[in-house]
Amino acid sequence: MPITPFTSRKGLTRRSMLGATLAAGAAVPLAAAARPAWAGPAVVAPAATRFTLPVPTGPYPVGTVGLHLVDRSRPDAIAGPGHFRELMATVWYPAQDVQRYPVSPWMPAGAFEAFVTDAGFSDLAGLVPLTAGHVGAPVRRTGRRLPVVVFSHGAHSHQGDHTVVVQELASHGYAVVTVAHQYDTYAEFPDGRIAVPLHDRQAPTLPGDFAADLRFVLDCVEKLAAGCNPDVDRRELPAGLLGALDPRRMGAFGWSKGGTATACATLADERLRAGLSLDGPMQMNPPLAGNLDRPFMMVSAEFTRATDPEAAAFWSHLRGWRLNIQAQGAAHVSYGDNEALFPQVAKVYGWSGQQLQDVIGTLDPGQAVKIQQAYPLAFFDEHLRHRRGHLLDGPSPAFPAVTFLP
Question: Residue 1: inside a domain, yes or no?
């Protein structure tokens, strides 16, 4: 659960804190918020158990496998001579015969401990939730290749921070590849190294760097589709994964800086047939250039076209299908796993309802989860599978908080 800035009873508003961190442009990542003063004692109640995530609604069980990737076209000056851009990624997919395969945690234990410790919640380190993904389970093959969606996380976050959306897509027949953007993430490498965000202005953590990672992941998807294993350690892949992905039907989505990176990557790479941004600031570095004629959807909260010139400018460059929606009461962290996890954190610490709203906004958490499950799926179904529904046509009584912005 990315701990991004939120309203403190004694400090700045959530909006002004976000604005301050972004004032210097997209090169300044969203900072991880410190533990609020009212968060309660740093002792987990004895009754506290492992946190849980909502189960996906699709008809298929979900499998998952990690990939250790190295982009040899990009030298890594921080790692030193002879080193190249190194990434961890995870493929999520519809699976079969999952009973024999272990369930994947939301984050590896070492990365989760570093994540919650940096956020001031070290006493939660033993409560990492489990996902619906079964590690190494065979891919469900139907004779047709799987459409692919790649995911880009936010600044100072991790590749699992939108697992609700990711496993929802996988349960409906998508292959989803999440990427951990090195130097701006929490991740664990196969040799046991724990990656944490690097507070170095020279680190490759601009939205353009994230976008380059996404484009490299597209290369890896093409290798998998061609029957080649891109994992640098040549670890065994799940049965049926090689040749299962469809490189002709690829899309991307991201949250916060990852949403901006998704926009950058979609502008730059025609292999991405559709892009979705979850409250991306659209403060692009390198600057925005050119128009986009492929479908793009913006889901807004803090960074709206009415309040942010960068978001408005990006919207004006969309020449194809476009849509902008906003859930009333949503905060910047509302379009992710925070809505499922922070109510559980609140119970552990005994937060009041107002204190919880200070973190995740006033949007009902249950409604927020359903929005995450429904709208990205409807978007990619329409533009990668050509399955047109009615959810994206206008307001729905099933989602009264969602407004369609003109």
Answer: no
